[in-house]
Amino acid sequence: MIPNNLATSIQMYNKIENDFINSIEQQYGLKFDKHNIYSSDRMYSPSEYINFKSSACIACEKGIDSRSDFLSLKCNKSCYFCFNPNQIDFLDNTQNIKKGQSIANHLLKENPRIQYVALTGGEPLLHKKEAINFFQRIERFNSKIHKRLYTNGELIDTFILKKLKNCNLQEIRFSIKLEDSLEKQADILEKIEEARYYIPDVIVEMPVIPKTYSHMENIITTLESIGVRGINLLEFCFPLHNEKEFIRRGFLLKYPPFQVYYNYWYSGGLAIAGSEEDSLKLLRFAKQNNFKMGIHYCSLANKHLGQIYQYNTAYPIDKWFYLSEKDYFLKSAKVYDNDIHCVEHVLRKNNLLQYNKNDDYNFLEFHPKYITLFDMVNIDIGMSYNIIEEINSNVFIKELKIEKIDQKNFILQTI
Ligand code: SF4
């Protein structure tokens, strides 16, 4: 179907979104929380923090000069929410262990200006020698490169902490597993406390699982007393496998799952309803209690930003597109059918000739900053969301969504 007006175009995208929702519910049996709908404003709190947010997190949001890699996906834990099993070649990657030095060489060759590197897993410390080799190689190449390690902490000891310190590791991110016994969690907290003597930034990173709010409040209070640099509260996600564990716990999926539907790289899947609310509540709790450590909430939408930014800044863009500072989508104002003539007339009268008129698809698009020219005109204007894709060396602009805008109250900075 070729949409020939704004309403049919919006309908077309609504159908795609509904088909996606239905197929997820049918395939996994996990339901969306349609009683608690996220409006686009409410949806968009991708990253909020108090006191401190790692510079590596800031770099990750644009994905420039920042990379992470793994030695193996093998892990000493088996978290039901782990998103690794959903990756291509997961089994091979649990059996094969890459050489620390060669993955470091690969990252450095790919981008000699790289500024942030991370080693993740699986559990990287199952291969301590290779993990050290990785960081040593990076350090030898350029000691200014920020190095960080993700670990569930079980294999941390004084010996490895000293080795990591000698590699000039700047940041270590522990995860605390709420499914573990309290004794085990206390053991990880002790290791976190010890790490502070060796690594400048000791951070905890964990998903905020609905129905665990009080436990999380206790954890962040303990971390504050230990004196860690911060905690990253992750939006809890369904990793598109192991659905029985999510259904058994009574979780629902956040609805709608995305502000803009797309095939995102990040394999963390779909956000679970309620995780964002609890994360923001923890942030408020820390603020009210004058916490000194950083509390940073990182939503699923935040994890998608780097991909969108990289795609949409890889090529020069046409003059009728606006690169949104908010979500990095390319946006254009779009009119159809009978409204085209009126818009073209006004744009030309104002000497604005950089618009795109498409007779085949019967639309005209122009830069959103000119929408205010039409605040008193009775026409339908849509906001089109686009991404640049490269397929077989050909570059395309792909429209992902269109929504009707209210031109009377339009403010460019809000899109
Ligand atoms: S500790 Fe991390 S890598 Fe290991 S199973 Fe849990 S989520 Fe996956």
Mean pLDDT: 94
Helix-residue proportion = 25-40%
CATH-assigned fold name of the largest domain: TIM Barrel
The CATH class label of the largest domain is: Alpha Beta
How many E strands?
A: 16
Bound molecules: iron/sulfur cluster
Short structural summary:
By secondary structure, this protein is of the alpha/beta class. The protein has helices at 6-28, 40-43, 55-62, 90-95, 100-110, 128-141, 158-166, 182-195, 213-226, 243-248, 275-288, 300-312, 338-349; strands at 47-50, 66-70, 116-120, 146-151, 171-174, 201-208, 230-235, 237-238, 270-271, 294-298, 322-323, 330-336, 356-358, 363-366, 382-391, 394-404. Residues 61-267 form the Radical SAM core domain.
